[in-house]
Amino acid sequence: MRKTIALIFAGGRVDELSVLTFHRPKSAVVFGGSYRFIDFALTNLANCEAIETVGIMSQYKPSSLIDHVGIGLPWDFVGTHRAVRFLPPYTGPEQAHWYRGTADALFQNLDFLQLHRPSDVLIVSGDHAYTMDYMPLLRFHIERGSDLTMAFTPMEVDPSRFGIAELDAEGRIMAYAEKPKNPRSNLASMTVFAIKASVLVDELKRASEAAEGKQGFYIYDEIIPRLVARRRAHGWVHYGPWEYVRTIDAYHQVHQDMLGESPKLDLGAWNVRTNNMSRRAAAPTPSRHLPGAQVSDSIISAGCAIAGRVERSVLSPDVRIGKGAVVRNSILWDGVTVEEGALLDGVIADKRTIIGKGARVGIGEECPPNEELSRSLTCGVTLLGSDVNIPAGTQVGRNCILYPHVGADQLDSGPVASGRTVRAPAR
Predict the structure, then answer these.
(1) pTM for this structure?
(2) Which CATH class is domain 4-248?
């Protein structure tokens, strides 16, 4: 096997995910209770024997992502031969700007490629949830003598949201288009591709020269179509779950798909690696079900203490559910506290949020789309940002968004009607 290094696109914020990406890139968003989106790419790379070096390109509020990945120990990217490195934008004698798109991020890290001198580069997105063995793709790439090999997966629902390819019987990419209005196939790009390092360098330099004066340049919109037209490009088809979560509705639904006797998405079978030691001196304690607790069809992470009732919900570490409280159809992140007698129905709560005694969140029959995200939040879920403090007895409707640090001062004027958005004063 030729020398291959990996690069992860991990720096983007997704506006449709609203307050979940207020303090972090999507790659650091909690998924499945105990994981982050980037865990899936890192786990796949850790299991790939051809990959020894991984570079992570991130620029949007990367602190939580850096804390989570650390030195790469949970994914075994430590030691003499294996390593993970963050590649943030930087100032230098010739470059002094933020990444201006995915292609520019690669271009600004040509020195990283020159340092490691790989034959091929495996480029993956850090904000999708899937399990994949990259070795067959890399072997296919080499055996076909391909300049570019992209991974695709069949997408039966609305394939026009993705880059779509047409392949011939040998796997050659005959046509490729980003988000076509009338897709001619259902093979959607997984934003996973192998490319010859020399080809990547040549194309990035050419694209950089052509992008002079532009706001940015991008790998999927500009470079890949040119590679398909001018170079030897192939497609590798992957069969299996691949979660591309771009809306609050989709984020909630995929967590519901993890529940039930035969879950549509079974993370337990994927053996996903994560960093449970971030910001801790020791691993979290086991969860506790206190007297009176009732838990059904839920995922409960370590460190939780439950005295109330939890139904069809996903709880991250260190969540507290008080006596008489009811939590159903909800996703609660690290350190959330639900006090005695509170009711949560269809709630996504970011870290350290507190729901006071007797508060009711996610109530009401009327369910208009959220006034701020009318296409992303329509399913009746209410979204609470980090460090929100809902006073005792407060009522909040459905499809609401409460921004980080919203507290009593913003919630003392009465119930929050369904579809409303509440912001905290600027700090």
Answers:
(1) 0.94
(2) alpha beta
